[in-house]
Design brief:
Helices cover 32% and strands 20% of the residues. The chain has 317 residues and is of the alpha+beta class. It has two domains: 99 residues; 176 residues, Cupredoxins -  blue copper proteins (Immunoglobulin-like), CATH 2.60.40. A five-stranded mixed beta sheet has the order 3-2-1-5-8, with no helix packed on it. Strands 4-10-9-6-7 form a five-stranded mixed beta sheet. A hairpin with a 5-residue loop joins strand 2 and strand 3.
Length: 317
């Protein structure tokens, strides 16, 4: 192609050695990025079977997206350096080069296929974590400025009313179906250890399913700005053994006996012996169990000083 008057001269073609060097640096950078991405403790300890599936999804996203980021960044930086303006070329125009159709088709088709594959994988994960499991119990979640209340419609107190608590107690390895509501404004019920959250909307029942698989105490947080007391709308999830859950039900007036109807998974504790949890599995008792990773990363449970029946508290209207 002939040079036009007032245009910059063509740069010499890129040598094969230069291309190999750039590709090699990109591969090394991508490998380092993937390792760093997988080593960083992005999440608090997982306490539900669904959490492990979601964690795997995020790790797959890291492995896929880091090389893409490195590729795009490498091309941009190399191009900015290789075809930068030289002294004396300030008033000149670039050469009239036409685009490469084949290259444009490739860099459009490959990302589209990659995104489609990730979307399908994410949809499969979303479906799997919402599948109903046998032996499932139902727990009602009620958001109100600025507290959470939990109802157990399958377990009644001495007056025949469903048990109500301000802290959430769940038996280990028992699937739970959460039914979430709000009595005033929109809240968001988030359990970081489950990797799940759902909006609590007035007049609408939302929900999700989870199967606790790790003993311990974990924070429950409202992530929706719901008023000036939003930052205090926190409580604690306690995952206990079947015997401890039965004791807790008895202390709330339940006259029956809770039985574990599902097969037990491998037990995980959050740093304390399982026997030490029983003393805390009661109203007003906050678990002190923590995992070393939880403490190191700042993910610690928020435990109110005491739990009282909602009837004794003044709820905001």
């Amino acid at each position: 192609m002939e040079e036009t008057r007032g245009s910059t001269p063509h740069r010499p073609p890129i040598s094969r050695v230069t291309v190999v060097r750039v590709v090699g640096l990109g591969v090394v950078a991508a490998g380092i990025g993937i390792v760093i991405g997988l080593v960083i403790p992005w999440f608090p300890p997982a306490a539900a079977t669904q959490a492990h599936t979601i964690d795997t999804l995020y790790y797959v996203l890291i492995i896929v997206t880091v090389p893409v980021f490195v590729l795009v960044t490498s091309v941009v930086l190399f191009s900015a350096w290789r075809w930068r303006m030289r002294p004396g070329e300030e008033r000149l125009d670039g050469p009239p080069i036409h685009g490469n159709t084949q290259l444009e088709v490739i860099w459009t088709a490959l990302p589209a296929a990659l995104i489609a594959a990730l979307v399908v994988y994410a949809a499969i994960v979303l479906h799997d974590i919402g599948v109903k499991k046998p032996g499932e119990i139902t727990v009602g979640v009620i958001g109100q400025q600025w507290e959470w209340r939990f109802t157990y419609p399958e377990y009644h107190d001495a007056q025949g009313q469903p048990i109500v608590a301000l802290q959430l107690y769940l038996p280990l390895d028992r699937p739970v179906n959460f039914k979430i509501n709000s009595v005033d404004v929109i809240h968001t019920f988030w359990v970081p250890a489950f990797r799940l959250q759902e909006d609590a909307v007035p007049g609408i029942t939302t929900g999700f399913r989870a199967t606790p698989d790790r003993l311990g105490s974990y924070p429950i947080i409202c992530t929706q700005l719901c008023g000036y007391g939003h930052s205090t709308m926190r409580t604690t999830l306690h995952i206990v053994t079947a015997a401890q859950f039965n004791t807790w039900l008895s202390e709330h007036g339940y006259s029956g006996t809770y039985t574990q109807t599902t097969s037990a998974h491998t037990r995980r504790t959050s740093g304390s012996a399982a026997s030490g949890l029983l003393a805390d599995a009661r109203p007003g008792g906050a678990h002190t169990a923590r995992s070393s990773r939880s403490s190191a990363s700042g993910w610690t449970a928020y435990a109110p000083a005491a739990e009282t029946h909602p009837a004794t508290k003044e709820g905001s209207q």
